[in-house]
Fold this sequence. Notes:
Blueprint: H1 5-8, H2 16-19, H3 23-37, E1 41-46, H4 51-54, E2 59-61, H5 63-72, E3 78-82, H6 85-94, E4 100-102, H7 118-131, E5 137-142, H8 147-155, E6 159-161, H9 166-176, E7 179-183, H10 186-195, E8 205-206, H11 217-221, E9 225-228, H12 240-249, E10 254-257, H13 263-268, E11 271-272, H14 275-284, E12 290-294, H15 297-306, E13 311-314, H16 330-342, H17 353-367
Helix pairs in contact: 3-16, 5-6, 6-17, 8-17
The chain binds 1,3-dihydroxyacetonephosphate and iron/sulfur cluster.
Amino acid sequence: MSPTPTTVDTEPLPFEEFRNASDAELNARIEAVRRELGSSLLILGHHYQQDEVIRFADLRGDSLKLSQLAAESRDCRSIVFCGVHFMAETADVLSRDDVSVYLPDMSAGCSMADMADLDAVEAAWSDLSELIDVEDVTPVTYINSTADLKAFCGRHGGIVCTSSNARKVLEWAFARRKRALFFPDQHLGRNTARTMGVPLDQMPVWDPRRELGGNSPHQIENSRVILWRGHCSVHQMFKPAHVAQFRERDPNVKILVHPECSMEVVEAADLVGSTEYILKTIEQAPAGSSWAVGTELHLVNRLAKEHPDKTIQFLSPMVCMCATMYRIDLPHLAWCLENLARGTPVNRVQVPDETKRWARESLRRMLELK
Ligand code: 13P
Ligand code: SF4
């Protein structure tokens, strides 16, 4: 099954065969490829992946940790990313040039990342330049964005942030320039700037479908952080009323949420942080403690299963799962891996060179922050 010249020209294995296979068979086939490819293959997995898939990840983490792991990877020639498209793109930008990155299902996107595109951000930048000096604005993109937006930030003296370093990034930005344009997640931007004392009236929201983003010239001139009108459809489901219900039922419960939740939820919570922070907080919590967690369902369910000595509940009565993360399943993983081993790779994520060059710049600025 190794990628020898005799197999390079064969047709990719059809996906249908994998869809009809049992989980036991798929598990065995995935293990066989991992044994065969050894250290030349690195499987990275985001914490939101379903249990069936994440168990095959060599390394797991939040977006920051996974970016660092891709940048530091030494032995591997291929990274198979069990996560969503922007994560695989970031791995392609940061990994060595002789490493190829694959996403088992190309339809695993991120609805928040889709809320800002390069044309709209460039149009906003041009509109802003009519009113204020954009040399004094740092564009900051949340890592949940396409590579060309990271490249935009690279070209304009900007930077990338993740949910675990957004404050450090905004401090970096304010040390250099007066204002920041933060996209695509308004909530992460607002929640972070709030902890730094930026008042709400200096954080106008930019709606790309409206003239001047739906703002008056005064609002823009008065701004410190201009927030893009984007959000995560999963985290917007958590409401302050859910926090209140949990507290009423159990006065000792601790509320732990992701910073993609709304400001009202974040301010009502006890602790806020990235998926890695959430995982570590629960791991370190004392036995008998009680938690309501506001982040994606698969991660919360896994934490509850792994820590039966603690009470871990999901913060919303509604099912809030990331449907795109869930697209990475055993059939897609097995299909992707077997094609890779056979020399007929499928679903390579390849960022064009010029975009890569500038996206690397904005990611480098982030990764160098201490
Ligand atoms: P983390 O970087 O905290 O893992 O967040 C990624 C994400 O997409 C959360 O919705
Ligand atoms: Fe994107 Fe939200 Fe899914 Fe995270 S949970 S990958 S922000 S859609």
